[in-house]
Amino acid sequence: MPNTYSQIYLQFVFAVKGRNNLIHESFREELQKYISGIINHKGHKLISIYANPDHIHIFISLKNLNIAISQLVKEIKVSSTNFINEKKFIDIPFYWQEGYGCFSYSKNQKDTIVNYINNQKEHHKKKSFRDEYLEFLIKFDIAFDEKYVFEFYD
């Protein structure tokens, strides 16, 4: 009986509402593990994740082709928002901004992307999230209007 086979690598990038630095080092790893569980539960494979104080990078191997990418991102955002708020990691309500970036890669780029995500802390000492995100949009030749890109305050 024929089967469906795929090898799709995707990086998701999305920001904390208001670009506030609300993801603290004290719970960053717990949040990343929680998001990893969501991704695995949905039938995908997490390759790399890094939650910066004001945004997150998630790199996955998309395995379950029966769920829309937008639905997967929605599930990650809603569930992780509820997790942060229920755990009371911060004193104010937590929310992700609307929207997200989704960028695809080939297998031979996998190690480069993992290294890039794992080195986010150092990377953002030199480059702002705004510059980073706009570079992604330009690199991937995505038409955009800056007034509809994330709320940038820097």
List the helices and strands and how they pair.
Layout: E1 8-15, H1 25-41, E2 45-51, E3 55-62, H2 69-87, E4 101-105, H3 110-118, H4 120-126, H5 129-139
Structure characterization notes:
This protein is an alpha+beta fold and 154 residues long. It contains five helices and four strands. The chain has helices at 25-41, 69-87, 110-118, 120-126, 129-139; strands at 8-15, 45-51, 55-62, 101-105. Strands 2-3-1-4 form a four-stranded antiparallel sheet, with helices on both faces. Strand 2 and strand 3 form a beta hairpin. Helix 1 (25-41) packs across helix 2 (69-87). The protein is globular, with a radius of gyration of 16 Å. The mean pLDDT is 93.
Features:
alpha+beta, 18% strand, 154 residues
Could you provide a short overview of the structure?
By secondary structure, the protein is α+β, with helices and mostly antiparallel strands.
Strand content: 15-25%
**Overall mean pLDDT score?**
93
Give the helix tally. Answer: 5
Low-confidence stretches: none
Strand order of the largest sheet: 2-3-1-4
User: What is the ordering of alpha helices and beta strands?
Assistant: EHEEHEHHH
The 3D shape can be described as: globular
The description of the largest β-sheet is: 4 strands, antiparallel
Percentage of residues assigned to helices: 40-55%
